Structures are given as C-alpha cells and as structure tokens.
Amino acid sequence: MANNSQDRALRERAAQVIPGGMYGHQSTALMPDGFPQFFTKAEGTRITDADGNQYIDYMCAYGPNLMGYHHPDIARAISAQQTSIDAATGPSPLIVDLAEAMVGMISHADWAMFCKNGGDATMMALMIARAYRGKRKVLVAKNAYHGAMPWNTPRPGGVLPEDRAHLIYFDYNDTQALEDAANEAGNDLAGIFAAPFRHDTFTDQSMPDREYAQAARRIADEYDALLVVDDVRAGFRMCRDCSWETVGVRPDLSAWGKVLGNGQPISALLGNDRAREAATKIFVTGSYWFAAVPMAAALETMRLIRETDYLEHMTVIGQSFRKGLAEQAVSNGFGLRQTGPVTLPMVLFEDDPDFRIGYGFCQAALKRGVYLSPYHNMFMNAAMTRSDIALTLEATGAAFEDIKRSRASLKPSAALTALIDA
C-alpha cells in the first residue's frame, strides 16, 4: 500500500476504545497484512479506504451489496421514506407491503416476520421449531454457520455447554449421517437446519445433492419437525426464490438477510402455514426491527430482483471471473480450486494448507486495486461490468506473477494458523 497512515491512526484510536481494536467478521485480524480496516466511501462496485485508496470490492460488505453500493433507485426510496417515518411507536404500512411482496415471491412462504440480522432470523427459526411441537432437538451440519448467537457462534468464548445441549451435528450432504442424527433425536426432534449449499469458511464449497435435500424434507415430515433453510448468505444470489427450489425442496421456514435492503439493516424469517401457530407463540422483538426506511429499501430491492436481469448478469460476470482466474493459474503453474456458485465464488490454492499462497496472492491483488478474500467465499453484485472484470484480471494476472517469483519466501498468517489449529 502506498499510503495507509490514516488507517494506522484509526487502528491506534480504536484499540483504546474498542475491545481488540475491532471485532466480528469485519475485523481484519485474520486478513493479510496491508488490508485496510476502515472505509469512507462505497459506490457501485468500489470501496474507498480511509487513506483514499480505491478497490473493486469482491466482498460486497460480506454480502449485503447485491445491486451495487448506493444504487440510485434504492437510494431514492430511502431518501423519500426518511422524510416521513422510520422507527416509531408502531410500524408503517410498509411492513404489510413488504410481507406481501416476499410471500408473493417465495414459493413456500405464507407469512413473514422482519428483524435486523441474519442471526436474529435463524434464532427465531430455532425458537419456532421448538415451539411447534414442544420438542428440543435440532439437527445442524458440522461447521455450518448460522449466525453468532450462543447456540451457533463459531468461537467458544462465553458459550456454555448448556447453550448447545440439544444440538445434534451431522456431515453436510451425507444422507446417512442425517438419518443417524434424526434417529438419535428420536421423538424429541424439533427441526433440521440446512444451508442452501456448503459454504464453510476456509474450505471448498459444495452444492447439495438432491437426494440429501429430499431426505431432509422427508425426515422432517416423518418426525413432525420443521425444516429450515438458512438463506441469509445465498438468498437471491442463486435464484429468485428460496435457494432449495433449485433442488426441488421447499422448507417450512427460511431465514433471509444481507441483500434484502441492499445494505440497509433488515432481515426476515419466512414460513408456511404449518409453522404459523408456532410463530405466534414466541416473543421476539427489537426497538429498530419495525423501522420503515430499511423496509422501503427492501421493497425497491425486491422490485429490482423481480424486474431486472440482475441474476443472469451476475452469473455471466461470475463465469468470466472464474474462467479468467483459471487460465491465469494454469499459465503461472498454480493449482486453483474454484467452488460454489459463480455468484458466490470461493477461490483456494492447491497445496496451500496454511494459506500462505492465498495470502500472498490477495496482498498482491490489493496493491493493484482489487479486494479479494483468501479464505471466505466472495460475492458478485449486479453493478459489476465487463470492464470491472477486465481490470480485475489485469490485477490478478500481475498478482500471479508476483507470487510465482516470491513463492519460496511467502509466509503464513500467524493469526489464521492459530485459529485453524484451535
């Protein structure tokens, strides 16, 4: 980086007033050296850090940027709504409009509830599954991420065994493992959580087998339990419906977040009539859950999802990105694993167990104005253009050449190595 003095100064100030200097998934503690922590502007496909350095952003705020940062139509909807009502003593009529819009779009849904974060929505799903028949056991795939609540946060600090006492883990995409877990739960099975595809951090992604997805539906029905699809990360990036429509399976509940307001804070839980009564039995709320401005943004985002070719465009752009990287890797003598949907690309290097090659590659790309992740799936957005891909591949081509020259001297991240070992 040519200039990062403002970022360094902000880090020093943050260290005094924020535990650890920063926290959560947007902390750069595990990112390669030189990655900025603070940003001052986001527009379209670009983000600008505190020192004025601009990047083509392939993380999209870890998902919320679907249509492009500060999309003009969504920005106008936000601005117009801000002049009338946002968070108030009761919700605006937009909550009904948005519930109708989502129920009208999502095949399995008969009702909708709104909150703020994906973790809110998955927690609500957990509670409703248990309220449905008064059962306790919930099946969850090993290492699957469903938010940062105590029942499923990936870090153990502050978590008690009692917080996870009734969870039973199974291997994703393994029908027999799922059936064994259901047998273990027996008549106490309340629900099954399913990711739309395997998107664990640090590992290759994989799509669900149709047999596995159908088994999850069958088992839920046999045990009179609820099937939950956590679409927080993948929602509207795989199809215009619940992601498991791609394998012909409809859940009872689906959790949504990230893209709903194109960056505005809003998430949702959708359910069918089978789960409606249980949803009325739980008490969940938040002072800002019913705010109107994010709902206005979500309604406009839903309109763009329905009426534009955003998904088809992202797919074409994603295929170009994947094809270009693959060709560059081969020409420079690197093995590259690209997995998952092209709209949510995961890029890992062969023979790189400590991620030193991936780190070096992402550092080299960042210096040339492209923000990539060495260990997390990335996100395409609808504002991406062929020009963006061309500029990206120019930067990654040079990055491959850099790490080819310096391969012997690349070093792993001590923080990431310690986390993986733990």
From TrEMBL:
Matches recorded under InterPro entries: Aminotrans_3, PyrdxlP-dep_Trfase, PyrdxlP-dep_Trfase_major, PyrdxlP-dep_Trfase_small
An example molecular function term from Gene Ontology annotations: transaminase activity
SUPFAM superfamilies: PLP-dependent transferases
Enzyme Commission no: 2.6.1.-
Top EC category: transferase
Record family assignment: Belongs to the class-III pyridoxal-phosphate-dependent aminotransferase family.
Name the record gives this protein: Aminopentol aminotransferase
Provenance organism: Pseudosulfitobacter pseudonitzschiae
Gene name of this polypeptide: fumI
